[in-house]
Amino acid sequence: MPKKYHISTKATPLDLEYLFKFRITRGENCINCGKCTKVCIYEAHKREIGDPRKMAAPNTAVCRNCFRCIQECPRGALEKSLNQDFLNSDGSYWKSNMLISLWKQAEDGKVPVSGAGYRGPFTGMGFDGMWTDMSEIVRPTRDGIHGREYISTAVELGRKLNHLVFDADGKLLSRIFDTVHLPLPIVFDLPAENLPGNVQAALAKAAAELDTFLILPVAGLTKDFEPYADNIIPLLTHKEIDQYSALLKNARLAALQYDGELLNNYQAVKVKMKGISSAPVIIRIPAGKDVEDTVSQLVHSGAEIIHIVADYCGLEVNGHASSHPRLIKDIIRAVHLRLVSEGIRDEVSLIFSGGIAMAEHVPKAMICGADLTAVDLPLLIALGIRLYEEPEKFLVLPEGLENIPVPILTQRIVNLMGAWHSQLLEVMGAMGIREARRLRGETGRAIFFEEVDEDTFGKLFKNREAVRL
Question: Which residues cross the membrane (predicted)?
Fold first, then answer.
C-alpha cells in the first residue's frame, strides 16, 4: 500500500486588508473601560499600544460576528453594520462569502465542511444544485481526515487501455502507455497575465511542494522557473513545437492549445511530439457548444489527455449570447456520457476547469465525470486578490502584494490545497469510497436538484402550461 499523501498546513496570516462582512465602529461615548477586550475571544478589541488608557480601533478582520461585544458594552458605544465593499464584491457566481471562505482556508488550512454540516446553498446554478451521498457518515471507520482508514486521492494522467491482449503463450501484446501519477486530483492553471513575479514563483513552488503541476504558456517560462521545471506543464500551439523542442524534451507533461487545424492534423502532430518526448500530451480546448463532438474526434484520433476550459463562472465559452448557456456541471456530464456511449471513456483522462471555486466542487466535478480539475482564481483569492464580476471579470491586486515573500505566499496556497484535500477525504469517507478514481462518473451517488424538481413538479406544470395555451 502506498504511503499516505499528506499536506502540511501552517497558520499563515497575510498582513493585507481583505474583505469582511461587518464593520465595527466605536462611538464617541466609549469610556475605554476595556469590557470588550475581556469578552471577545477573537481579540477584535485591544488597547492602543502607545497609550493603553485608550481603546484602539476594532479589528474587524478577525471578528466572527458573535455580537458579544455589542451586548456587553455598558455604554452601547459599539455598532455593527454591513461592509459596503463586501456588498460590492458580491457577484452572480463568485459570492462575497466564497471569497472570504477561500481567504480563511488559505490562512489556516482547515477543512471547510466536516461533522458540523454543510452551510452552503442547496439549490442554485452549477454545483450548488448538486448533493453528494453521505450515507456512510454514520459508520465509525468512514472517518475521512482522521486517518484510521486508508483513502487514496491519487489519479493517473494519460491514455489508458480498456482491455488487454495476450498471445497464445500468455505474453502481453497490448502497449502500455506512459502515464503520470498525481497524488491530488488538482492541477494549477495560471489564472491571469501580468501577475507579480513573486506570485508566479509562489504558484510554481506550491505546485512542486504538493507534487502537482502548474500550466504555464511557454512565452512566460523564464529562467526563474527552472527549479520547478518538473512541475510545470508548458502550454503552446502546435506551430510552436519545433521552436520549443528543447524545452518539451525534458517536460513530464505538455499542453497544446486546440484549434481546427490541430484536429485535422492531429496524427502528424502526435508523431512530431512523440519524436521529441514520451511525455503525455494535453489538448486544451474551450468548452464551446459542441465540445463533446470535438472531444470524441480527438479521442478517436489518439488523444491522451483533454483539458476542457469553461469561463470563469463555469459557463460555456461564448455561451452568453444564447439564453441558456450550459453550466460546467452539465458540460462534464455531456462529455463523459458521450465517451461512455462510444466505449472509449477509459482511453482518455479529462481535466475540467472554469468555475471550480470551492473545495466541494472538486469531488462534485469528478462525480459528474471528470478525472481531475484545474483551479485558477481561488489561488489568487488565497493571496488577497479581489475578484469583481460586473460589468466583466476584474481582478484587483492588494497594495503591497508584490513585496510579500514567496515562502509566505507559497504556504497560503499549500494551506488552501490542504483544506481542499481534507474536504475531498471527508466526502469520500462519507460516501464509503476509498479511491478517488472511483468517484469518476458516480452520478448515482449524487442528487441533482433540477432532476428532482422535474420529476416532482415537471408534469404538473407542463400540463398547466398546455391548458393555458
Answer: none
Backbone torsion region of residue 148, taken as left when φ is above 0, otherwise alpha when ψ lies between -120 and 50, otherwise beta: alpha
Counting every residue written for the chain, the total comes to 469
Distant-in-sequence, close-in-space partners of 58: CB < 8 Å, separation ≥ 6: 24, 25, 26, 44, 45, 78
| 76-130: pLDDT as tens digits | 999 988 888 888 888 889 999 899 999 999 999 988 876 656 667 777 788 988 8
For residue 212, give Cα distances in angstroms to 15, 205, 347, 399. 28, 10, 22, 29
pLDDT tens digits, 228-285: 999 999 999 999 999 999 999 999 999 999 998 898 889 899 999 989 988 999 999 9
| Among candidate residues 128, 182, 187, 190, the one with its CA nearest the CA of residue 314 | 128
The Cβ-side half-sphere exposure at 50, using a 13 Å CA radius, reads 2
Q: Which three cell numbers stand for residue 273?
A: 511530439
pLDDT surpassing 50 at residue 429: yes
- According to CATH, the topology of domain 144-453 is TIM Barrel (3.20.20)
Phi (first) and psi of residue 22, to 5 degrees: -120, 155
What are the DSSP E strand ranges found in 128-265? 130-132, 155-157, 180-182, 186-189, 214-217, 232-236, 254-257
Query: If you search the block for the grid coordinates 474551450, which residue do you land on?
Result: 286
CATH fold for domain 22-82: Alpha-Beta Plaits (3.30.70)
* Antiparallel, parallel or unpaired: β 254-257 and 155-157: unpaired
pLDDT beyond 70 at 203: yes
- What residue ranges of the chain are covered by domains with CATH 3.20.20.70? 144-453
Is the pLDDT assigned to residue 469 strictly greater than 50? no
